[in-house]
Structure formats: C-alpha cells, structure tokens
Amino acid sequence: MKKFKYSEITSEKIYNNRRKFIKTLSVGFGSICFSNYSNANIDLSKITSFKDITTYNNYYEFGTGKSDPYIKSQNFKTKPWSIRIEGEVEKPLEISVEEILSLFSSEERILKLRCVEGWSMIIPWNGFSLSQIISKVSLTSKAKFVEFESIYDPNQMSGQRYPVLNWPYKEGLRIDEAMHPLTTVVTGLYNKKLPNQNGAPLRIFMPWKYGFKSAKAIVKIKFVEKIPTSSWMWASPREYGFYSNVNPNVNHPRWSQATERAIGNDIFAPRIKTEMFNGYGDQVAHLYSGMDLKKYY
Ligand code: MTE
C-alpha cells in the first residue's frame, strides 16, 4: 500500500496552520522545566504494580468488565493517529502523535488515581502538562472550557456497539483547570509506551479528580464557551457532575466516598481514608476558592 506523506492527506490550510504552530513551538524550546511531580504524600513503596495498572481498567469502549480492556484492546490500532485542536482557537489544526511526542518531552509523574467506584492506584505515568500545548494555540476570548473527545470506532471497540454511554466518550475542564501543571497529557507508564488499555496513544490525567474525568485515546481537544456536557453527566447528571473533584465529604448518591481500597492490597486490608482533592489540595484548592463543592460536585 502506498504510504502517504502527511502533507498529501491534509488540506493545505490545515497543513500550513500546523507548520506555523510547529514553528511557534520551536521558539523558546529548551526552556521546559523538569520538576518533581511525585506527590509529597505518596509512599513510593506503594506504587501499584505494572500488572495491576494494566489488567484492572475502566475503558467502556472495550466492555464493562475490569479485565475486558486488557483482553480486548490488544489489536487496537493506534497508528496513524492525529489530534484535532479546534473550537475557540484562531486557527484549528490537526497534529500527529509523532509530532506531539517529538515536540514535548515527557517526564515521569508518579500520581494517584482515585476511581469514583472507591479504589485507587499510584501510577508512574510519563507525560507533560497540557498547558504546554494550550499556551501555543491562540485561544479566542470565548474559550472558557475545554472538551476532550475519545475515538469513536465501533468496528474496533465492541463496547461502542452498546449504548452504555453516548459515544464518543467526552469529558471537559474549565480552562484554568486545563492550564494547571498537574493536568497531564499521558504518553506512557513505567517508562514504557502507553498500553492500549490505559488509553494509547494519548490520554489525559488529572490526579485531583475522579478517574472518569481523564479521557483515554483522545482525538479532539475543543475549546468552547459553555460548560460542556460530559458522557457521564449525560448518563446520570445526579451522580456525575462537571467538576468531579475527589471529595470524601460528598458521597456518591449510591455509596460513600470517605474511603478507598488500594488496588494490589489484600482484599481484607483496611480501607484507606480518601483525601480532599485526592491529596493534591495544596496545589489545586485555590482553583475552587469560594465555590460550594457540594453544589458543584
Ligand atoms: N476514557 C474512555 N475513553 N473510556 C472510559 O471508559 N474510563 C474512565 C477513565 N477514562 C474511561 C476513560 C475511568 S472510569 C477511569 S477510573 C480511568 O479512565 C481508568 O484509567 P486506567 O484504566 O488507566 O486506570
């Protein structure tokens, strides 16, 4: 099969915008600061095993069972892959994963994932701050929120043949949340290529929010004026709000959020106390000052 060059399959306008985008990116490169993203509260001896991180997953596109994503995603095609950046930006563009990986250097970020279901993992991700991408696109004054869209491909993702959620999977953030340095574009874990079941080729991760906010296999980043409706808000607005910050004081309507089970621990091990903002309050609490987090759950 003939291999097309990117320029051949992209409209000229998009291609040129992409070139300009890449040019802007090259300026001032080399000044990326590497910081230690390990949470001070994290006991590094408690990092979840590679096996647990990659075999106990939520990825409804591949089924609702915890082992479905591992079993059913192995042949999922993540190449070629590009991401569209659109909406309230001066110039929409499409950029390939290879280009993203070559433009932004990933670092190790050991961050905790707290799932809304009441379990947690400590994951040595590799990635970089989403703000690095956002600060390179010119947003219009109407860009107040950002929406992430995961891939829609029912031929490859059997879960999408069932209306469990309104596919494609969508999530969103307020712009200041998206610009926060902890909001990570994940490119790998355990210094390995990101496994398909964890959201290859690229997924988002915010450690202070319940895991479902962190969309996998994203194909679109769209800047919008109005608060977006995520797939989970659409499925059950009473249970899943837009903010979804980890909050032990606000119960899910069907269960408590006060404690969690660390995956990998013995099933009879005592549950651990869930911390406000999953332990990242020092870094993120200011984003919500003055907000009633019971109302804005
Ligand atoms: N992204 C997509 N596209 N589809 C999903 O079903 N599940 C979410 C989130 N991102 C999900 C998703 C949920 S509920 C959680 S807890 C995390 O992914 C799980 O991430 P992990 O499997 O890498 O631990």
Tell me what you see in this structure.
The radius of gyration is 19 Å and the shape is globular. The chain has helices at 6-9, 12-26, 50-55, 68-72, 97-103, 130-134, 175-179, 231-235, 281-284; strands spanning 82-87, 93-96, 107-114, 119-129, 145-150, 170-174, 184-189, 192-193, 203-205, 218-224, 259-262, 272-273. It contains nine helices and twelve strands. Strands 3, 4, 7, 8, 9, 11 and 12 form a seven-stranded mixed beta sheet that branches. Mean pLDDT is 90; it is low at 1-12 and 26-35. A hairpin with a 5-residue loop joins strand 1 and strand 2 (93-96). It is of the alpha+beta class and 297 residues long. The protein has a single domain (6-286), classed as Sulfite Oxidase, Chain A, domain 2 (Alpha-Beta Complex). Helices cover 19% and strands 22% of the residues. Ligand MTE binds at residues 57-61, 113, 115, 150, 169, 198-199, 211-212, 214-217.
Give a short account of the largest sheet.
7 strands, mixed
Structural class: alpha+beta
CATH topology: Sulfite Oxidase, Chain A, domain 2
What is the succession of H and E elements?
HHHHEEHEEHEEHEEEEHEEH
Summed over residues and divided by their number, the pLDDT gives a mean of 90
Uncertain ranges: 1-12, 26-35
Query: For the record, what CATH class applies?
Result: Alpha Beta
CATH structural architecture: Alpha-Beta Complex
Q: Count up the domains.
A: 1
Shape: globular
Percent strand: 15-25%
Output the CATH homologous superfamily. Oxidoreductase, molybdopterin-binding domain
Our Rg estimate from Cα atoms comes to 19 Å
How many beta-strand runs? 12
Helix content: 10-25%
Number of DSSP helical runs: 9
Terminal residue distance: 50 Å
**Which molecules are bound besides the chains?**
ligand MTE
